[in-house]
């Protein structure tokens, strides 16, 4: 039918874009996974009358070339006239050496001279070839190893058992598990044992070394295990209960309280219940929970300080709606550790039932703009209520990641004041000096942009801020020639390069950061500098 023919043409463009971005090609299973990750729905096999992905691609001879490598089917793209240039750039990708990185950094500084040469965040040009694990996944792996070391062979089972899902490292751009471990060499090490490769958290390793160097502590523990000694020699708590069981004594000697409970109405006994609060502890709660004094109620998160015009900065694209609406993280060891530490601390505090119940958000506080936190897959995230959906659900904005999601009201908890200090880590961005060929971005253009960005450290060139949105150029430096994303979109016929930035239509319709995050500085007053000659040519 006409509908199927149109769907097939769109699908061909999307499949070609995904395969071109994969230098080594994809297996049919990997193609299914990447399509699901990018489009958020499975390949439309049934709609087109196919039983399998392999059957689908055999009907795309002008798009897909099917190869065999070591008995495994590999799908590779067949470039058309509009994508030959991109295919050539992808084919030229190489693993960057230190010498190459130095050459790129020198070239970048020469093209964009600056008066801040000592700023490491602005001028370190990271290898865009190296995949990056999201902060939440890093935290999960560290948490998994925090209690004890783990054999590499048992990692998959342990991860599935702890977090309820498989650890699919390929979706983050890694080709093997050893690449993942190499990327986390700053926080874990691999030790070879008779049983196999053992993964050890560096903190645990340091503590073990400390115990070996100072066995005195162990000796003290063996000679005098203080906790046990106290229990054996002077079980003070038990002694108090045996000698002076005050609560029981009061009940036995003066059973007046019980009589009052039976004879006197409940309202008259409230004073006595308050006096006995220490003994009741957390067994009784008031009908209307009291909001803790350190709960954030009428405050907002601050944004990160504005970046200087024309500076170079390492970035990771965290969430994409379109080339005109996406969110980035700044690449720096400090920023990554700060966010991980915050997530660990929040998980430690809110995982305790007493604290979790204490900070529960009452119905009266569930309103747009309320800053709170929510648990997803056992991790806590800072969120801002965007709108109330119904009696049980709200839509929240993830201030550190940039996306919206509908969650249960019962999942919400007040944010503690301590967790307000770290600025919102997600920066709203739009690709500079470019606009879609039509009124909106096509699905193929969005898919291509996602593939260009996916799980890579990129170089961002700051252009300007417009209404709180950062307009920047994105560049992939992992090829022999630097690849500017706006040029790729233009060369594929998806975009038109402009002389000035056009306000993002998507952010004009909805920009949660502008609504709920307090600017840390006046971004409109960012230094205005004309772009360099090399940038104008691109």
Automatic annotation (TrEMBL):
GO cellular component: cytoplasm
Residue ranges constituting the HTH OST-type domain according to the UniProt record: 7-80, 129-204
Alphabetized PROSITE patterns for the sequence: HTH_OST, TUDOR
Domain Tudor, chain residue ranges per copy: 365-422
Region (Disordered): 208-273
Biased composition (Acidic residues): 211-273
Subcellular location: Cytoplasm
Biological process (GO), any one: spermatogenesis
InterPro entries: LOTUS-like, OST-HTH/LOTUS_dom, SNase_OB-fold_sf, Tudor, Tudor_domain_containing
Claim: Repeat is one of the keywords in the record: yes
Keywords, alphabetical: Cytoplasm, Developmental protein, Differentiation, Repeat, Spermatogenesis
Family under the similarity heading: Belongs to the TDRD5 family.
PANTHER family per UniProt: TUDOR DOMAIN CONTAINING PROTEIN, TUDOR DOMAIN-CONTAINING PROTEIN 5
Protein name stated in the entry: Tudor domain-containing protein 5
Lineage: Eukaryota, Metazoa, Chordata, Craniata, Vertebrata
């Amino acid at each position: 039918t006409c509908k199927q023919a149109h769907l097939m043409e769109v699908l061909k463009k999307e499949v070609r874009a995904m395969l071109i971005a994969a230098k080594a090609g994809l297996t049919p299973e990997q193609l299914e996974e990447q399509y699901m990750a990018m489009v958020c729905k499975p390949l439309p096999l049934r709609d087109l009358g196919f039983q399998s992905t392999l059957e689908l691609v055999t009907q795309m001879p002008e798009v897909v070339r099917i190869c065999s490598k070591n008995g495994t089917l590999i799908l590779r793209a067949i470039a058309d006239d509009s994508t030959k240039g991109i295919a050539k750039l992808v084919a030229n990708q190489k693993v960057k050496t230190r010498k190459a990185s130095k050459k790129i950094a020198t070239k970048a500084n020469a093209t964009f001279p600056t008066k801040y040469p000592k700023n490491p965040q602005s001028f370190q040009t990271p290898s865009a070839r190296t995949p990056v694990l999201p902060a939440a996944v890093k935290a999960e792996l560290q948490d998994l190893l925090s209690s004890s070391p783990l054999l590499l062979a048992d990692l998959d089972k342990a991860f599935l058992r702890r977090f309820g899902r498989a650890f699919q490292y390929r979706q983050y751009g890694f080709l093997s598990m050893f690449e993942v471990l190499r990327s986390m060499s700053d926080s874990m090490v691999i030790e070879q044992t008779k049983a196999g490769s053992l993964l050890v958290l560096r903190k645990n390793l340091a503590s073990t070394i400390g115990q070996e160097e100072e066995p005195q502590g162990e000796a003290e523990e063996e000679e005098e295990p203080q906790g046990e000694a106290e229990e054996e020699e002077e079980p003070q708590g038990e002694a108090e209960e045996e000698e002076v069981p005050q609560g029981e004594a009061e009940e036995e000697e003066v059973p007046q309280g019980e009589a009052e409970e039976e004879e006197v109405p409940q309202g008259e006994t409230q004073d006595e219940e308050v006096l006995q609060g220490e003994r009741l502890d957390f067994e009784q709660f008031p009908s209307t929970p009291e909001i803790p004094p350190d709960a954030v109620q009428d405050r907002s998160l601050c944004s990160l300080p504005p970046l200087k015009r024309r500076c170079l900065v390492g970035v990771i694209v965290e969430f994409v709606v379109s080339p005109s609406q996406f969110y980035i993280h700044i690449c720096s060891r400090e920023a990554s550790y700060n966010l991980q530490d915050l997530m660990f601390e929040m998980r430690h505090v809110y995982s305790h039932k007493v604290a979790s119940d204490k900070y529960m958000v009452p119905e009266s506080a569930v309103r747009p703009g309320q800053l709170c936190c929510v648990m997803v897959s056992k991790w806590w995230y800072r969120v801002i209520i965007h709108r109330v959906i119904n009696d049980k659900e709200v839509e929240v904005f993830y201030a550190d990641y940039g996306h919206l999601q509908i969650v249960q009201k019962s999942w919400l908890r007040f944010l503690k004041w301590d967790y307000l200090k770290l600025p919102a880590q997600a920066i709203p961005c739009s690709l500079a000096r470019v606009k879609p060929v039509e009124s909106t971005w096509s699905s193929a253009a969005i898919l291509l942009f996602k593939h260009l960005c996916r799980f890579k450290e990129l170089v961002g060139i700051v252009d300007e801020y417009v209404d709180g949105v950062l307009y920047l150029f994105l560049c992939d430096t992992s090829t022999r020639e630097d690849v500017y994303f706006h040029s790729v979109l233009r060369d594929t016929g998806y975009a038109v390069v402009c002389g000035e930035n056009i306000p993002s239509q998507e952010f004009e319709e909805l920009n949660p950061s502008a609504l709920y995050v307090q600017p840390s500085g006046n971004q409109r007053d960012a230094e205005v500098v004309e772009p360099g000659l090399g940038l104008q040519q691109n």
